[in-house]
Amino acid sequence: MSSELLSKLLDLLGPNGLVTEASDLEGYSIDWRHLFPGKPLAVVRPANTAEVAGVVKLCRAYGTAVVPQGGNTGMAGGAVPDASGTQVVLSLSRMTALREVDPVGMTLEAEAGCVLKTAQDAAAAVGRLLPISLAAEGSATVGGVIATNAGGVNVLRYGMVRALVLGLEVVLPDGSIADGLRRLRKDNAGYDWKQLFIGSEGTLGIVTAAVLRLLPQPKSSVTALMSVPDPKAALDLLACAQDELGDTISAFELMAGSSLKLVEKHFGLRRPIADGDWFVLIEAASSLSGLREAAEAALGNALEQGFALDGTVAESGRQAADLWQLRERITESEAKEGKSVKHDVSVPIPLIPQFLVEAGIALERDAPGTRVNCFGHLGDGNLHYNVLIDGHASDEINRIVHDVVDRFGGSISAEHGIGQYRVAELEKRRSAPELAIARRIKTALDPEDLLNPGKVLSRAERA
Ligand code: FAD
Ligand code: MLT
Ligand code: ZN
After folding, report:
1. Could you point out which of 7, 10, 156, 165 has its C-alpha 20 to 30 Å from the C-alpha of 261?
2. pLDDT digit string (tens) for 210-258?
3. Distance, CA of 366 to CA of 398 (rounded, Å)
4. Residue 145: which of 165, 175, 128 has the closest Cα?
5. Does domain 2-91 have CATH number 3.30.43.10?
6. What are the residue ranges spanned by the domains of the chain?
7. Ligand 1 atom closest to Cα of 207?
């Protein structure tokens, strides 16, 4: 049966579109964090939407599951197959066209496999901004960031990816093509069905192309690294910056001093200000002049009030990029440091200092010897409270941290999604009616559970 399917896939896609050699399958088989090794039957690389639809129809006829994959930078194991050797990975890596950038309508249309950085650069070339920014932007794809409803460092000002998607083209689990590639700012004509697919992690349909919203490219920006005495002071600094710089603030990132030490250890990058327990990286951007003066006044004010202890404002684009490297290299430094358990949590912003205190106490009590690597998007209430483990089991660490998250009314997945990593934990936390909504949607669109099965919802839960 599977050889018959492979032969039909070859007829449909040609030799460039089908990968079956074991050595060539490796890169598609395991996730970025190397936590979920899988074994695909094959990898298909369709060249256009019609071929994606053809693959989905063929696989459905043979009862074969399809796992969509973009840049494979996801943090939840959503883009890799299980170990059964029966699932087909559908890689969007040949669908990379950037179809149109419209500086007047402020839109960009791209195929799903277009790398995020390519799309950002194309927008910048016509003086526009695509404000989706994350450390994996050199590999993550347009389809991937839509499928995960990614966050990143600019959510504070521009929102999650969902807020930036105007139109979507999706191949449904039955192989039909839903063409919603509209570029309208206002469109209340019926259900906004594209929202179902944004953040559905490839379980409801395969995104093949999208129209994204662009913004004016700011003409001036200010990047500053500040050290702060504690997380409460970081929140005071946030409030002070918001009072004085308003919506020009596009990023407000918290980093523990220990996170920056990891970056120094593994990449040799040194922070340009004195050592401290906590740091904040702030970026403000504007199309109007006068931003630098306003930012320097606001930060000076924060220093005077004791919210910040020390700080530096980048003098050039190069210096700003160097400051960002300190933040963007944390994830890779953590991976080099050893085994860690990641937490992508959000709690109401004012509760963050108390959350940090209580999570620290719980870990010290129940998992002594572990180290915390804490950084993240403070302005969004989203922290990566990652724990470097020392012989402790991952499940135990997850339970300790997530119990505290629950007490604070938080979320166990602020931006990375559920994938296969957090299925059981999600199901524990959702009420029966909420799970029933999810199951009904899944069953309505994918009754045979052939699109990315076992991701977001467990297979049993879908029955
Ligand atoms: P993949 O990893 O390939 O896939 C992710 C999920 O989407 C899978 O479930 C997959 O099946 C599905 N999928 C992919 N493409 C499609 C498609 N075309 N149609 C349907 N489903 C599809 N994430 C954040 O939110 N914020 C961050 O700040 C952030 N920083 C990161 C930093 C680093 C260093 C790394 C390695 C990752 C980071 N991530 C971050 C996680 C990751 O980059 C995002 O989740 C990103 O959106 C994944 O894009 P991708 O193309 O790699 O998708
Ligand atoms: C980030 O903000 O850098 C990420 O989401 C990646 C991570 O959690 O390590
Ligand atoms: Zn993040």
Report:
1. 156
2. 999 999 999 999 999 999 999 999 999 999 999 999 999 999 999 999 9
3. 12
4. 165
5. yes
6. 2-91, 98-216, 220-329, 338-416, 426-462
7. 19
Confirm or reject CATH 1.10.10.10 for domain 98-216, answering yes or no.
no
Say what the pTM is. Answer: 0.97
Is the C-beta atom of 343 inside 6 A of ligand 2? no
**What type of residue is 154?**
N
The contacts found for 101-108 with CB under 8 angstroms, 24 or more apart, are 101/125, 101/126, 101/128, 101/214, 102/183, 103/127, 103/128, 103/214, 105/183, 106/213, 106/214, 106/215, 106/216, 107/166, 107/183, 107/211, 107/212, 107/213, 107/214, 108/211, 108/212, 108/214
Q: For the segment 284-318, what is each residue's pLDDT rounded down to a tens digit?
A: 999 888 999 999 999 999 999 999 999 999 999 99
The CATH number of the structural domain formed by 220-329 is 3.30.70.2190
CATH of domain 338-416: 3.30.70.2740
Cβ(384) – ligand 2 distance below 6 Å: yes
Nearest ligand, CA 417: 1
Sorted by sequence, the CB contacts under 8 Å of residue 62 that are 6+ apart come out as 1, 2, 4, 5
Residues with CB under 6 A from ligand 1: 32, 67-75, 78-79, 92, 112, 134-136, 140-141, 143-145, 147-148, 150-152, 201-202, 206-207, 331, 415-416, 419, 452, 455
Ligand whose nearest atom lies closest to the CA of 346: 3
Contact 127, 103 (CB under 8 A): yes
Q: From ligand 3's centre to the CA of 460, what distance in Å?
A: 30
Residues 6 or more apart from 63 whose CB is under 8 A from it? 448, 450
Atom of ligand 1 nearest to the CA of 452: 11
Identical topology for domains 220-329 and 338-416: yes
